[in-house]
Amino acid sequence: MTPILEMRSIVKEFPGVKALDGVTFDLFAGEFHALVGENGAGKSTLMKILSGVYPYGTYGGDIIVEGGVRHFKTVRDAESAGIAIIFQELSLIKELTVAENIFLGREPSKFGVINWLELYTKAGKLLKDLNLPINPKTPVGNLGVGSQQLVEIAKALSQNARILVLDEPTAALTEAEVETLFGILRDLKDRGVGMIYISHKLGEVFEMSDRITVLRDGRTVGTNEAKDLSVAKVIALMVGREVGDIFPLSRHEFGETVLEIKNLTAFEAETNKKLVDNVSFNVRKGEVLGISGLMGAGRSELLMAIFGAHPGRATGEISVEGKRVSISNPSEAIKNGIGFVTEDRKRFGLILEQTILDNMTLAGLKQISGAFVTHRARESVAARKSMTDLHVKAGSPLTVAGTLSGGNQQKVVLGKWLLTNPKVLFLDEPTRGIDVGAKQEIYANINELAKQGLAIVMVSSELPEVIGLSDRILVLHEGKLTGEFTRTEATPERVMAAATGNN
Amino acid sequence: MTEQVKESRFKLPTSALRAYTMIAALALIWMFFHYATAQNTPAFSDIGSHLGNFFSFEWIREGIFLSSRNLSNLMLQTSVTGIIAVGMLMVIVAGQIDLSVGSVLGFAGAVAAIALTSWEFGLPAALLAAIIIGAFIGLAQGALTAYLNIPAFIVTLGGLLAWRGAVKAITKSETIPIADPIFKSIGQSYIAPQLGWILAGAGVLFVLAVAFRRAQTQKTYELGEVNYAGEMLKALPSVAAILIFIYVMNSYAGIPIPVLIFLAVALLGVFITNFTTFGRYLYAIGGNADAARLSGINNKLNILKVFVLLGALTGLASLIFTARVGSASPDAGTLKELDAIAACVIGGASLVGGRGTIFGACLGALIMASLDNGMSLLNVRDFMQDIIKGLILVAAVGLDMFGKKSS
Q1: Do A330 and B355 touch (CB under 8 A)?
Q2: Where does chain A hold its CATH 3.40.50.300 domain(s)?
Q3: Sign of CA dihedral B164, B165, B169, B175
């Protein structure tokens, strides 16, 4: 039997980063094939290549569908070859009805006039075939997340998809919804649809899969029959890389506790769901505290809540240097000596069209420059010093931030927060999307800052990074603290087990 | 790294490039109108005779547009729009918009006129009332925008309608004449030429002092080589501009009071946008609201403040407008919001926020007024004037976008 899909030696490079390095993957009709790996291992990139999001020509290697090499230039090309992807973030339009969403862009029509009768009849039949008790005339926004997921699947099947990719489909589902979903997936399997299933939930993976492929650092570590594997084996394959010596080893002397958090709980703004559930921890002078966990475990929300920037309700006690403080907005957090290098520097960290100088002095402007009238010379001196200390490579402080490389942009954000004279510094994914050389420089910066007595709390999805840099590691799983390890206790396996709730 | 240093030495920053382009555009417009308003200039259709006529250079002497009288008039026409454009620029930089300023101008002017004539407020109180009313309207609309998250476009579109209605209500749809000579003088009188020269002297000294201080700060903070001569040289164009400006104004009747107020407001705007934390925060909020908020900036409060500032400036502009016309009328200030927004946009401001300069907005206001003034001198029909202004606005922004894309 030949596979319906083969991906051979797929290579994909982003500026400075090799995201995929010769990945090979195949799928048979009626097969359920799980794709697992750490965050950043390359799963999503691989699927974006398969679905034409990254068009032919921007990657190396071959995609072979049903025996023929395909060159997908657009998502449409991939769809017409029978490939459908259901992404983590749903791509439905909430205001439109279920039927309108299913046939979006392919409405049955003559001369641009939509045949509504045909559209709703077809949609109704499709939903009935899938045994979905959903009215095709319901606006999608009125459905729960679980039902929306099923509508996505119906949409994929309406395009005669024979290859269905599911990216973390159960992340937002209740157990009952998961069961419904799995029932439908089994049904599809019997009809000969091949499925690629991406999930961090290894229990589900083992429940459903025929085969499991593990990706690590953009390479295929192995493809095995599920029955030959175990959860422990898969975790070992996922994290099995050497924690190399790109982490400059340094021993810090810890001082007194700088920040203490007690019983912090943060709720989602609209649903009142607990995103962070009763978390307590402290961090000392000169200590690097790593926070690990999978995507959606509540790590960023934890930091945001402490910083006074969480949009929902948050409760708990915060003490800085032994004193209870109340923080309701970032300005108060800064006043209390907390700095926050947020994740996604382009969205939350930088004003891309402004200069390095303007970006660097923004958070500490009133201290550096003056409460009302600014003092450019003093700002310039501060920015220059920061650029030298952090080794920012740019022509001058007047270089526009948007023109810098990722690593240098990150250093500018770091510099911005150091210029507020923080006692404790939060780092959220400090090295995401930057190349290895720049990563190493950021690591050196972090170590140097800790040595100078700064308390550092670092969230990172990269396991080696957390383990290599942290003096102590906290692990979150679904908002709860599920593990705490010292530097000597922490192994990738133990951290990953706690992060997946399997400890 | 050395490559980048080299590059920055030879490449003009885009903001400076935009400023030069605009000055060049203004010069072209002025030259065109001056040529066209000369007596001997042939009809436009007579293309063949233009060449010889142009190179006879008689039009330079004969043209009306660049006469001191008309330039004085042009500056007067610029001042009301210019004052509002200064406030509007800051609102636009913060990523907001205010469509209500035309109606607010009418309302505040009417309040001042009625306070003076019917309520017997006394002149200072009546003048102050207009500014306070403007600021208060800014406060209300700013609060709805910043704290209730109603988009500024909607809030001020409502304001555009509502305040126009309010003007009609308090004026009973009738024109209220102003009799008070002091009030009228705000819009109609000139500063004595001697005083003008004194102001020019003060201006020149100020420019030189700023240049000197910049060089000195560079020395104190060790920011590169200190070059006193170089700094002074850079101040020369400004000095020349001040002297020429005063000379031209004095050749007619002296600096008009509205122009003086406009210049003061523009200077204030330059100071706020370049040298205050508030100004920096406006650019940050417009450039990336999330990053600004996470850097500890109180976005809502700053947005509120900028609306209050624009409201107060609109109140001030209403006094000049009312005084110039000599009466408060129910349709005073109609479409002024569009002039002010167009001035900002022609001046390089981005409606998305984060980008724009006071200098650009003022130049934009001057370009808009030049088109009005020049086309009126040429007796271009009213409807054609509107069509041409509309086309130029779109073309200016189109060119800007084109330039950005290709760079």
Answers
A1: no
A2: 5-239, 256-337+422-503
A3: positive
Closest CA to A158 of A97, A106, A86, A93: A106
Shortest CA distance from B288: residue in chain A: A351
Strands A211-216 and A113-114, sheet pairing: unpaired
Residue whose tokens read 């579109």: B157
Tell whether A372 lies on the interface with B, counting CB pairs under 8 A: yes
- Which of the residue ranges B62-66, B115-119, B278-282, B396-400 has the most confident prediction, judged by mean pLDDT? B278-282
**Helices and strands (DSSP H and E) totals, chain A:** 17, 22
The fold of A5-239 is: Rossmann fold (3.40.50)
Are the beta carbons of B4 and A363 separated by less than 8 Å?
Answer: no
- Residue B221 Cα, gap to closest chain A Cα (Å): 7
ipTM of predicted assembly, 2 dp:
0.81
CA separation for the pair A422, A232 (Å, rounded): 41
Q: A113 CA to chain B: closest CA distance, Å?
A: 33
- Report pLDDT digits (tens) over B302-343: 999 999 999 999 999 999 999 999 999 999 999 899 999 999
| Sheet containing A288-292: order of strands | A338-341, A424-428, A455-459, A288-292, A472-477, A480-486
Q: What is the DSSP letter of B12?
A: P
- Tally A–B CB contacts below 8 A: 100
pLDDT at residue B381 greater than cutoff 50: yes
A326-362 confidence digits (pLDDT tens): 999 999 999 999 999 998 888 899 999 899 999 999 9
Residues B291, A369: C-beta atoms closer than 8 Å:
no
Calculate Rg over the CA atoms of chain A. 25
A256-337+422-503 classified as CATH 2.60.40.10: no
A331 reaches B (C-beta below 8 A): yes
* pLDDT above 50: residue A239: yes
Name the residue among B1, B283, B292 with its Cβ closest to that of A393. B1
Residues of B in contact with A354 (CB under 8 A): 283-284, 287, 354
Using CB atoms within 10 Å of the CB of residue B196, give its burial: 0 to 12 exposed, 13 to 18 middle, 19+ buried: buried
Distance of CA B179 to the CA centre of its chain: 29
Q: Which residues contact A447 (CB under 8 A, 6 or more apart)?
A: A248, A250, A288, A469
| Alpha helices for B40-100 (secondary structure H) | 47-55, 58-62, 68-93
Give the N- to C-terminal CA distance of chain A in Å, as an integer.
Answer: 40
Contact with chain A for residue B299, Cβ under 8 A: no
CB contact under 8 A, B284 and A378: no
